[in-house]
Design goal:
This protein is of the alpha+beta class and 485 residues long. It contains 17 helices and 11 strands. The chain has a 4-stranded antiparallel β-sheet with strand order 4-3-6-5, sandwiched between helices. Strands 8-7-10-9 form a 4-stranded antiparallel β-sheet, sandwiched between helices. It is globular, with a radius of gyration of 28 Å.
Length: 485
């Protein structure tokens, strides 16, 4: 430990200066066990260190700061005493990544950082000076903000180099993905007769997903399970499944809901198929499904013959896809516009949702024009065009946005919608039928497959980094301001 080595060296130098014998010095130097205990005690009580990570450390104040930031964002936090341990583990993993990134020569120059800050300020329609004042007003120092931003950029670059760049996608995987999408054309609009005995079938499954971290405490796990079981009861009681998902997502943006579309059994997650294997069309799975990521409520929207369920145009597309012949796919494109309030310090989810609800009510009451509100308030590059996003097809937008948009009628305005970019208010202007070209299909397929593979590869990589690091937990329970023990 660095702290121990420095203290011992200073003590030896002092003894020599005072004329104490070398024999006494060697006796003290050999008592390393006591020195280690003393060093740990000093680190614990004086420096406020929560954990030593390789040659660095995580302080209790860093944990406090991270919790404060989450509270400002309005995040729902566990109340069973596990929060500090969860935050510490995240900080440890981040520290390991930063240490490795520095060792591998990943860096962010001052010029690059200034350019990034300039871009952020511009997107928020501020000068750099105004943005700096905004950061300081939020309770942070600008230097601290710059360091956190530098760390984020380094982590992203390191992750891209170590994980994303190593993900390989074959042409066969792309072909299979496109064939799967072709089979799902027209998903919810067409209902076919069930497959005959021994005939291949496709199953349309929808899910409501309540995520919970595997390391979360008992209270958080129990709360997530309770929510899932309540949704299951509501769904069994005849409630509209997708509407239940939408309402749950409004209460908690982390909750996801989606219709997976028609898929062959081997194209469904294995645990999903096992849970709905004997569930009939239009029925909800008998029990909540637990996975390492959280709890799933499943409904079989429909079961159909793999080929007979498609209309003539879809059958031709399916046969063509099966033969490996490239072909365009008919899709529905949507012209929409939005007002975006980005995630940022000082703006809680509750404040963003309240502001957008106010804009929504003005548009619905016809006291304001959506496009004018977008020009004035939207924090997106589309603002000068009244929030217009242009024609978008399936997969062009993040899932939460696309699902909310697809449920809207032409001219209708959504309730506030949360995505990774912030909070949105959406209005659909028009829809049209178009062709998804072969080139566009392959681009989309490659991106979608990469996203699927990345999450698993990323988690495996993080586990490997954590397992090979030297980590010693000292004091995670006390806040930085707590009296030393």
């Amino acid at each position: 430990m660095t702290f121990c080595r420095i203290s011992l060296k200073s003590f030896i130098c002092a003894l020599i200066f005072l004329g104490i014998s070398l024999t006494s010095v060697m006796t003290i130097a050999q008592d390393t066990s006591k020195a280690n205990i003393l060093a740990d005690s000093k680190i614990r009580n004086i420096d406020g260190v929560a954990a030593v990570v390789n040659t660095g450390y995580v302080t209790r104040k860093e944990i406090d700061d991270r919790i404060t930031a989450l509270k400002k964002q309005g995040a729902k936090l566990p109340d069973d005493g596990s929060l500090r341990k969860i935050i510490l583990e995240r900080l440890i993993v981040e520290k390991i990544q930063l240490q490795n990134a520095e060792q591998e020569g990943v860096a962010v120059t001052g010029k690059e950082l200034d350019k990034i800050i300039g871009d952020i300020a511009e997107k928020n329609k501020m000068s750099v000076a105004e943005f700096k004042a905004k950061v300081i007003a939020s309770g942070s120092t600008f230097e601290k903000y710059k360091q956190l931003l530098r760390d984020d950029v380094m982590l992203t670059r390191y992750r891209e180099r170590e994980v994303e760049a190593k993900i390989k996608i074959s042409d066969a995987e792309i072909d299979n993905f496109i064939a799967e999408r072709t089979r799902a054309i027209g998903g919810g609009s067409s209902r076919s007769t069930p497959a005959a005995k021994g005939e291949p079938e496709e199953i349309d499954v929808a899910q409501i997903f309540i995520p919970v971290d595997a390391s979360a405490g008992v209270s958080a796990q129990a709360e997530a399970k309770k929510k899932a079981e309540q949704l299951l009861r509501d769904a069994k009681g005849g409630g509209d499944f997708m509407q239940l998902g939408a309402m749950a997502a409004q209460e908690n943006p982390k909750i996801k809901f989606q219709d997976l579309g028609y898929r062959a059994p081997d194209r469904l997650p294995q645990i999903f198929y096992e849970a709905i294997r004997n569930t009939g069309s239009g029925q909800v799975a008998s029990a909540v499904l637990k996975s390492p990521a959280g709890y799933h409520v499943l409904k079989v929207m429909d079961r159909r013959s793999a080929v007979a369920g498609a209309n003539p145009q879809q059958q031709a597309a399916l046969q063509e896809a099966s033969s490996g012949t490239p072909q365009n796919i008919p899709i529905t494109q949507t012209l929409s516009r939005h007002i975006l309030l980005r995630n940022r310090a000082g703006l809680t989810d509750q404040d963003a949702e309240r502001r957008l609800a106010g804009y929504r009510d003005q548009v619905r009451a016809k006291t304001a024009d959506f496009g004018e509100l977008a020009k004035k308030f939207s924090e997106d590059g589309s603002a000068p065009n009244g929030g217009n996003l242009g024609w978008m097809g399936p997969g062009d937008l993040v899932p939460e946005f696309e699902q909310a948009m697809n449920r809207l009628q032409i001219g209708e305005v959504s309730n506030p919608v949360k995505t990774e970019f912030g909070w949105h208010l959406i209005q659909v202007l028009e829809r049209r039928e178009a062709q998804l070209t072969v080139e566009k299909q392959r681009q989309f397929a490659r991106a979608a497959i990469r996203e699927r593979k990345f999450e698993q590869a990323y988690q495996d990589w993080l586990r490997e980094l954590r397992d090979t690091a030297t980590v010693k937990i000292l004091n995670v329970d006390d806040a930085a301001s707590a009296d030393p023990r």
